Amino acid sequence: MCVTRPTLSTLTKRLDRGEVSAESVIILPVMFGMIWLVVQAAVVINAGNAAHYVASQAALAAARHGSTMASADAALMTATESVGARLARAPRFDWADAQVTVHVEVVVPRAAPFFGETVTRSVTAPRERFIEYAER
């Protein structure tokens, strides 16, 4: 019967057997957490872009010559549905002689508890005015 002694390489392989699982236990949650935060940041940025689009479409509709509050609301609802956004509260329109400002607040889908629940955007557009041909 031949008995062999373990070499140095087989001894180190036996000692390193649990090293990969210990590293995985430490690294994987950190990696998943970072991915989770990046995804949530992208969702917040998307909600901000959607809020800006909705506010700009409503401001442009409200700034047209002869437009009414109903036409501005219709443009706002159409834009909201087209991007799949959900308004947190009713939009606010500030009408002035030379411009109109629309304030919109959109709900952000949340996966991380420390990000904001809503995103607010405001857009100002100059109002169109009709000038008679003789006055030009």
Can you put this structure into words, describing what you see?
The mean pLDDT is 87. The chain has 136 residues and is of the alpha+beta class. Strand 1 and strand 2 form a beta hairpin. The chain has three helices and three strands. Helix content is 50%, strand content 16%.
Instruction: Give the class from helix and strand content and strand pairing.
Output: alpha+beta
- Described by the principal axes of the CA atoms, the overall outline is rod-shaped
State the domain count: 1
Q: Work out the helix count.
A: 3
Sequence stretches where pLDDT stays below 50 over 5 or more residues: none
Radius of gyration: 29 Å
Highest CATH level, the class: Alpha Beta
Number of strands: 3
Strand content: 15-25%
Distance between the termini: 114 Å
Mean pLDDT: 87
Write a brief caption for the model.
The chain is of the alpha+beta class and 136 residues long. It has helices spanning 8-15, 19-63, 69-83; strands at residues 92-95, 99-107, 118-126.
Task: Give the helices and strands, then pairings.
Blueprint: H1 8-15, H2 19-63, H3 69-83, E1 92-95, E2 99-107, E3 118-126
Antiparallel strand pairs: 1-2, 2-3
Key structural traits:
136 residues, 3 strands, 3 helices, 16% strand, Pantoate--beta-alanine Ligase, Chain: A,domain 2, alpha+beta
